[in-house]
Amino acid sequence: MQVQLLKPWNGFRVGMLFPIMADGVANVLIRRGIAKHVDGNDKSTDSDKRAGAGTSDAVASEKATRNRKHGHSPR
Question: Which regions in the chain score pLDDT beneath 50?
Answer without folding.
Answer: 46-48, 50
